[in-house]
Amino acid sequence: MLTPQRQGTPGFHSIRDSHQMVWVLKGNSLIAVPSSSNVKPAVICSLPCKDTNVHVEGKGSLIYLGIMGADLCLFCAEIEGQPTLQLKEKKIMDLYRENEAQVPFLFLRSIEVSTSTFQSVAYPNWFIATSSEAGQPVILTKERGKTYNTNFFFSAETGFQ
Hints:
Blueprint: E1 11-17, E2 21-26, E3 29-34, E4 44-48, E5 61-67, E6 72-79, E7 82-89, H1 92-97, E8 106-112, E9 115-120, E10 127-131, E11 136-137, E12 139-141, E13 148-149, E14 152-156
Antiparallel strand pairs: 1-4, 1-14, 2-3, 3-11, 4-5, 5-6, 5-8, 6-7, 8-9, 10-12, 10-13
């Protein structure tokens, strides 16, 4: 059984894939672009889910993911029969304060060697992914290790409050 972390402030992270693509906020979408000095990556906020009644297959941490300074959180919904990753206007602290898990916003973060995967709790076996082609949106995929990158370096950022 997964046990949630107990914390009251978000963790701040930079995220990149094995192709050195970082996530950038463009309007209300996340886009993966090559990391460079000209690029300002989105800072990802994470907070644990406090609901101990959520049961998920697999090992890892149940977390909410948001974009620092934007009041946007990652959210999974079905569009035209396909699970889709979206950004929804929501404060990550509001999700954290909920006693009952907000499943469409919830991800299972699993650590695989030095990288992390983020599986949708609402859509099991669907993972956050990036294309190896620059400028493409961050999506959900069921095909791990094929066309899309599903493993990310999720590094703690310091100096944010």
